[in-house]
Design goal:
This protein is an alpha/beta fold. It contains 13 helices and 15 strands. Strand 3, helix 3 and strand 4 form a beta-alpha-beta unit. The chain is globular, with a radius of gyration of 23 Å.
Length: about 475
């Protein structure tokens, strides 16, 4: 529908310029979308809450034909940070091709952090299981939980991959762009800091079953639910807006199936279960610079914290050190832009490859066997081995403060890696803290007390705006 100039003038006179704009957007979208209402049982209220689901006629689909979906939490128990109306932000999301499911919490006092994280877990688990609010076609890796007032910049490129680093598959010879998603408050009342995570779900090029062409089947898998948020009941990033943060999720630097990868001319799967520098460090530095550059445009504060778990912790840890390595820093995008972060919460990961033989048979047999295949024997190549881990980049007290989280019944080599890395930071006077045995095995913090400790740690160093209860 196209309104004539005189009609637009009359609308703005009657509704005012601001409300006239919303009216026109709503009118246009109503003719190009399908809406339904019903209710959904909230975990935190133990009752049914109303929802409205709107699917644009030209909804974006993922590679599998599933609809990209935003679950939009509104009328929560605290003040919004974004200053737009919900109607404006929902209309914007619909115009970008997302199905939007608005969950209306009716300002219930339970809809605050960290309690709201329980519903985030329930939402992701339901989408991953194949049914949420009556929809069985929500994307399993292109669906997002957004708080009211927030928008998303999807697929922001942060580095062009070099296929010759991991050489997998053999036919992958032209590098793909690695991407990140940035979730931010639109027109924030005050600038907010950002929590950045490198996914523990790998994106990579895939050769189709007939080996005739590369497909997008495993590209942009950073939020594949079964491999990440739903698989581990991880709500930390998506729940962080309730504490005054923006958040971003980046493709893991190893653009390859986690169990594969080989150096040029080397044995198959030589890189099984680990990544290599300078490639990984270059990507981490470029991602941070890219986030800084975009943050200026989006109204973010410029302060960045790293949240890392498992292989995402290994990658994210490369961001905290202060050592300058030109080969690491002079590659990728936005060279010359700040690549500093202000804090990091790091879960189980690998931070110093020179220490993997301290205890044999403690869970890192792939590293013990394969690292010499590509870096040569440790005794003769110690400097090279050292340059592969985050501990090498920690040089002075200018390194970012870190919180380490882990369970003591996880693989023992993680405890060894954390203890050694944390002791190095402490020796340099860098503030550290620990969160231990918040759960079992290889897992992320899920209970309210542990999540609050993590959010408080980041608040100490990133200084988000105060989120006031309604």
């Amino acid at each position: 529908m196209k309104l004539q100039k005189s009609q637009r003038f009359n609308l703005s006179q009657f509704f005012g310029v601001h409300w006239g704009t919303i009216f026109v957007l709503t009118l246009l979208l109503s003719q190009n979308s399908f809406a339904s209402t019903n209710n959904w049982t909230s975990t935190i209220t133990d009752s049914k809450i109303n929802y409205k689901a709107t699917t644009p006629k030209r909804a974006f689909k993922d590679f599998n034909g599933h609809t990209m979906t935003v679950v939009y939490l509104e009328n929560l128990g605290f003040e919004k940070i974004g200053s737009n109306t919900n109607a404006e932000d929902v209309s914007w999301l619909l115009s970008k091709g997302y199905r939007v499911i608005e969950l209306d919490y009716a300002n219930t006092p339970e809809a605050v952090s960290p309690t709201i994280n329980q519903d985030i877990v329930a939402i992701n688990d339901s989408i991953d299981a194949g049914s949420f609010c009556g929809f069985t076609d929500c994307s399993h890796y292109r669906s997002y939980v957004l708080f009211e007032g927030y928008r998303i910049e999807r697929d922001v490129p942060y580095f062009v991959d070099d296929p010759t680093v991991y050489n997998s598959p053999d036919e992958y010879t032209v590098g793909d762009s690695l991407h990140m998603d940035i979730i931010y408050p639109a027109n924030p009342k005050s600038p907010v800091p950002t929590l950045l995570s490198f996914s523990y779900s790998n994106s990579y090029a895939t050769w189709d079953k007939d080996k005739k062409r590369l497909t997008a089947a495993n590209k942009d898998q950073r939020l594949k639910l079964s491999w990440s948020l739903a698989g581990f009941n991880d709500s930390f990033l998506e729940g962080s807006p309730a504490q005054g943060f923006a958040w971003a999720i980046a493709d893991h630097p190893k653009y390859c199936s986690w169990g594969k990868g080989k150096p040029t001319g080397g044995p198959n799967d030589a890189y099984k279960s680990y990544e290599t520098n300078p490639d990984a460090a270059q990507k981490v530095k470029s991602a941070i610079r890219t986030l800084h550059a975009w943050g200026e445009k989006l109204g973010l504060s410029g302060k960045i914290g790293i949240f890392g778990f498992s292989r995402g912790s290994t990658a994210g840890s490369l961001a905290i050190g202060d050592r300058k390595v030109p080969e690491f820093q002079n590659a990728g995008f936005n060279i010359g832009v700040d690549d500093k972060v202000q804090a990091a919460a790091l879960g189980p990961g690998v931070f110093d490859y020179t220490q993997i033989y301290n205890i044999l048979g403690d869970g890192d047999k792939n590293l013990e066997a394969r690292c010499p295949w590509v870096w040569g024997p440790l005794a003769e190549n110690r400097e090279k081995w050292a340059s592969m881990g985050a501990a090498y980049l920690v040089q002075t007290s200018a390194t970012a403060p870190a919180l380490f989280f882990y369970n003591t019944d996880d693989e023992l080599y993680y405890q060894d890696q954390i203890a050694l890395f944390q002791n190095k930071l402490k020796a340099l006077g860098i503030p550290t803290s620990s969160l231990v045995d918040y759960g079992h095995g290889h897992s992320v913090p899920q209970d309210g007390e542990s999540l609050t400790k993590l959010y408080n740690f980041f608040s100490q160093y990133l200084e988000p705006p105060t989120v006031k209860a309604d």
